[in-house]
Amino acid sequence: xxxxxxxxxxxxxxxxxxxxxxxxxxxxxxxxxxxxxxxxxxxxxxxxxxxxxxxxxxxxxxxxxxxxxxxxxxxxxxxxxxxxxxxxxxxxxxxxxxxxxxxxxxxxxxxxxxxxxxxxxxxxxxxxxxxxxxxxxxxxxxxxxxxxxxxxxxxxxxxxxxx
Length: 163
Hints:
Largest sheet: 8 strands, mixed
CATH topology: Aminopeptidase
Pfam families: Acetyltransf_3
Mean pLDDT: 95
Strand content: 25-35%
Number of strands: 8
Organism: Jatrophihabitans lederbergiae
CATH class: Alpha Beta
Protein name: GNAT family N-acetyltransferase
InterPro entries: Acyl_CoA_acyltransferase, GNAT_dom, Ribosomal_N-acetyltransferase
């Protein structure tokens, strides 16, 4: 379930890895950036752990740790918020502050779109806070289009060409 790009590796974590990330308790062999995990990784891995407890194995529709190829350090995560429902999935993502601004999130999102396409997903949705312009631009660079906005969030989606 792992995927690679020129600059990144996306690693589909298991329950033990999720627990270490959630507890901020790296073990020997875990290579994490100094600011990993960041605040966004904690609720994401918490949701992954709850879903695993309730429904069993989450992969391939779980959480992927984003690792930089150049130094193999974990710099963030991207994940599905559950299996497809009628061909539709929702995702979330984030990077540690030290890794932002290099196009890594766009690259990771593109990889998740490819993973989803290979699994028969037809639509991927994501949302951002109204004031999170950087995240909105990231989604747009990854091919997502804003479909709605409400008083708190901008909602995006991308239609997927399944393989």
